């Protein structure tokens, strides 16, 4: 009994031995999907910035002749790898990485809610009270989560803020 209570102290939630491997597989697959989304998004943004002359010229490799938009940018891929290694080596602790990821996710949610209220108002041409109500209901919840994440700012959550600036 003492051993299971010790496990609870050091982990976010307890997973039985039978479920540990399936949960690990799901977590790895989620990380692969998330990293692919970041890579694809970065390539797309860099390509658009280069087309608008807002970014230095880089080599863009089109990986498919049939599907438009599938690109690979070797320099950016190497830069992303080096940044990931630097952050991973710099943290040396999964708890700090979790703090950073938590602040990043809740910040994205808060910004999305603010932008969605603008979509309700400007694109959907709904009444301003509907947009404010949406912003108040969801923004209040997310602002509470955001303020809770700020407590961990000095424990690793400063990294997403630094990378954005």
Looking at this protein, list some descriptive labels.
transmembrane; K+ potassium transporter integral membrane domain-containing protein; K_trans_N; two-stranded antiparallel sheet; 165 residues; K+_transporter; mainly alpha; membrane
Question: What order do the SSEs take from the amino end to the carboxyl end, as H and E?
Answer: HHEEHHHH
Number of beta-strand segments:
2
Strand content bin: under 5%
Query: How many helices does DSSP assign?
Result: 6
The poorly predicted ranges are: 5-10
Distance separating the two termini: 48 Å
Characterization of this structure:
About 4% of the residues have low confidence. The chain is 74% helix and 2% strand. It is globular and about 50 Å long. The protein is an all-alpha fold and 165 residues long. The protein has six helices and two strands, in the order ααββαααα. Helix 4 packs antiparallel against helix 5 and helix 4 packs across helix 6. Strands 1-2 form a two-stranded antiparallel ribbon. The longest helix is centred in the first third of the chain and has 35 residues.
Concise summary:
The chain has 165 residues and is an all-alpha fold. The protein has six helices and two strands, in the order H-H-E-E-H-H-H-H. Helix 4 runs antiparallel to helix 5.
Topology:
Blueprint: H1 2-10, H2 17-51, E1 61-62, E2 71-72, H3 74-91, H4 94-123, H5 128-150, H6 158-164
Antiparallel strand pairs: 1-2
Helix pairs in contact: 4-5, 4-6
């Amino acid at each position: 009994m003492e051993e299971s209570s010790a496990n609870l102290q050091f982990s976010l939630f307890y997973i039985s031995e039978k479920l540990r491997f399936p949960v690990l597989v799901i977590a790895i697959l989620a990380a692969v999907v998330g990293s692919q989304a970041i890579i694809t998004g970065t390539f797309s943004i860099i390509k658009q910035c280069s087309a608008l002359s807002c970014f230095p010229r880089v080599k863009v490799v089109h990986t498919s002749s049939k599907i438009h938009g599938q690109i690979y940018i070797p320099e950016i891929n190497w830069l992303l790898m080096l940044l990931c290694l630097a952050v991973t080596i710099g943290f040396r602790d999964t708890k700090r990485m979790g703090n950073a990821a938590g602040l990043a996710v809740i910040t994205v949610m808060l910004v999305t809610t603010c932008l969605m209220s603008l979509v309700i108002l400007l694109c959907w041409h709904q009444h301003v009270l509907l947009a404010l109500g949406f912003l108040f209901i969801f923004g209040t919840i997310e602002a509470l989560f955001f303020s809770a994440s700020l407590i961990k700012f000095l424990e690793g959550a400063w990294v997403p803020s630094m990378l954005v600036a």
